[in-house]
Amino acid sequence: MGRIIVEVMPKPEILDPQGKAIAGALPHQGLNIFTDVRQGKRFELTVEGDVTEADLEAAKKAAETVLSNPVIEDVVGVYAEEQ
């Protein structure tokens, strides 16, 4: 079985309240080195057999039409997971 990873992030101009909340919590854990946090989504799509170029193209289409909202999100990665 092959696995395709799709990563989706909010567009840079879109506010990210979850990322801001995480950024505010990190210093309370002694983690002061991070200057910004953006939270996105990760999808894992499983296919029969090895991942083909056609599978990746189908995953890109799914990412752009179903897995993300193109008005406020960017698809930043679609790739086969190393096994």
Structural description of this entry:
With 83 residues, the chain is of the alpha+beta class. It is built from two helices and three strands. It has a single domain, classed as 2-Layer Sandwich (Mth169, Chain: A). The chain has a three-stranded antiparallel sheet with strand order 2-1-3, covered by helices on one side. The longest helix has 15 residues, at 53-67. The protein is elongated.
Average pLDDT number: 96
> Which CATH class?
Alpha Beta
Number of strand elements? 3
From the alpha-carbon coordinates, what is the Rg to the nearest angstrom? 16 Å
CATH architectural designation: 2-Layer Sandwich
**What's the CATH superfamily, by name?**
Phosphoribosylformylglycinamidine synthase subunit PurS
Strand content: 25-35%
Count structural domains. Answer: 1
- Helix % is 25-40%
Helix/strand order: EHEHE
Shape: elongated
Strand order of the largest sheet: 2-1-3
**What is the helix tally?**
2
Question: What is the terminal separation in angstroms?
Answer: 10 Å
Q: Any low-confidence stretches, pLDDT <50, length ≥5?
A: none
Biggest beta sheet attributes: 3 strands, antiparallel
Structural classification: alpha+beta
Instruction: Indicate the CATH topology.
Output: Mth169, Chain: A
Task: Give a short synopsis of this structure.
The protein contains two helices and three strands, in the order βαβαβ. With 83 residues, it is an alpha+beta fold. The longest helix has 15 residues, at 53-67.
Keywords:
83 residues, ATP binding, single chain, PurS-like_sf, 3-stranded antiparallel β-sheet, ATP-binding, Mth169, Chain: A, purine biosynthesis, elongated, alpha+beta, PurS
